[in-house]
Design brief:
With 292 residues, the chain is mainly alpha-helical. Helix content is 53%, strand content 6%. The protein has helices spanning 4-13, 66-76, 83-96, 100-107, 113-121, 124-140, 145-171, 187-203, 205-224, 230-251, and strands at residues 265-273, 276-284.
């Protein structure tokens, strides 16, 4: 049997302006015997008619930009910000593999209500319905944060689902209950941790605690239900966390023309052509100011 950790490792390789100088003093005029009234202060310049100017739009989370955001999230997974999380996820999954059979023998109970109940709660159709409902509610109530979080959760779920499916077909690992060969990684787990991480990044630790607790229960239920090994759920959790962080990071970037980069960044994009393939290296350099 192919070691899942080695396959995952192979996948991983894939200021305000300066003040103007004061003008020279004018020659002193002759003193008049008649006192002069003080000059009235200048009235402030009236603003132009019409609404006040609005700052440039910086939010990328629009329905029109969704395809571009989806592609940017996939590319963002291969950025230097995710190198160490990807390596850590592969290492943890490989470290958990020797305990797969032992954990299964201790906790697997396919007929237990716990595994069946949380399997339904972690199903992609159920979670997608909840995310869409949250987006609609946020729009109706004019809550700006909830639609943004739901937008990112839906995007993270799509990217996570696509990568999870690709890994399942690549590894072709048999499930513990011998039902099929799509055990690695756990799709329920990757989806649950992608949504939990997105909530945590938008709402902080108050949302992170219940969200990650629910995701952990869903992951544990997949072992109880005898559908996955321990290494399957560890890899799924790592994948969901990495994808969600990439999605939120990409969508939080200001739109082009609204801000200049402040540091050098790079990304690698896999490219497939008719007779081969390769990698495209993209460098983003900060804007240099001309010296006086």
């Amino acid at each position: 049997m192919i070691d899942p950790a080695s396959l995952v490792a192979a996948w991983l390789m894939m200021a305000a302006p300066a003040a103007m100088p004061a003008p020279p003093p004018a020659p002193m005029a002759a003193v008049s015997a008649v006192p002069q009234a003080p000059a009235a202060p200048e009235a402030p310049e009236a603003p132009p008619p019409g609404p006040a100017a609005t700052p440039p739009e910086t939010d990328r989370r629009t329905l029109k930009a969704f395809p571009a955001n989806l592609a940017a999230a996939v590319v963002g997974i291969w950025s230097p910000d995710t190198v160490w999380p990807l390596a850590a996820g592969a290492a943890l999954s490989g470290a958990a593999a020797p305990f797969d059979v032992r954990v299964r023998n201790r906790v697997a109970a396919p007929d237990a209500w716990f595994g069946k109940t949380f399997a339904v709660g972690g199903d992609s159709l159920v979670t997608t319905g909840g995310v869409v409902a949250a987006y609609v509610i946020g729009r109706i109530t004019h809550d700006r944060k909830l639609p943004a979080a739901a937008y990112d959760m839906f995007e993270a779920a799509l990217v996570t689902g696509a990568l999870t499916t690709g890994l399942k077909y690549a590894t072709h690992r048999e499930r513990p209950d011998d039902s099929d060969h799509y055990s690695f990684p756990s799709g329920h787990t990757s989806n649950a941790f992608a949504l939990a991480t997105t909530l945590a990044l938008h709402y902080g630790w108050k949302a992170a605690v219940p969200a990650y607790l629910g995701a952990a229960l869903i992951a544990y239920s997949r072992i109880v239900n005898d559908k996955h090994y321990l290494s399957d759920v560890v890899a799924g959790a790592a994948l969901g966390i990495i994808v969600a962080r990439a999605v939120v990071r990409q969508n939080n970037r200001p739109r082009a023309g609204t801000a200049a980069p402040t540091r050098v960044s790079w990304s690698l994009t896999p490219v497939a052509v008719r007779r081969g393939g390769g990698l495209v290296l993209t460098l983003v350099m900060p804007r240099c100011h001309r010296l006086p």
